[in-house]
User: What shape does this take?
Amino acid sequence: MSQGIPTKPNRTGWVHPMLKEIAKAFAEALYERLAHDNLWYELNPNRGAFVRRTWPTLLPAVRTHLAQLLGMNTISEEEKVRVHDALVKDHSLRLGRHRARVLH
Assistant: This one.
């Protein structure tokens, strides 16, 4: 499966697929943590809706986390190349979003 730059934006705009996948995993983990509180769970019983609503807000944390991984010795050089490539492409997509806003 290629994780290149998408050809058109999704509903949340231009986001690299790797970052989107990780943000969704962050949202799933956050839901699991918060769902231990029974009152919170009563108000948020739909995991899928929570993940769909929350993952875009977690993108800055994902970008920070991935950037920090590049400086660690705990991941392979191959993984670092994949992470770096995804961050560079995502940054290009973010620049494209900014340009599109300026033009309209």
The two ends are 34 Å apart (CA to CA).
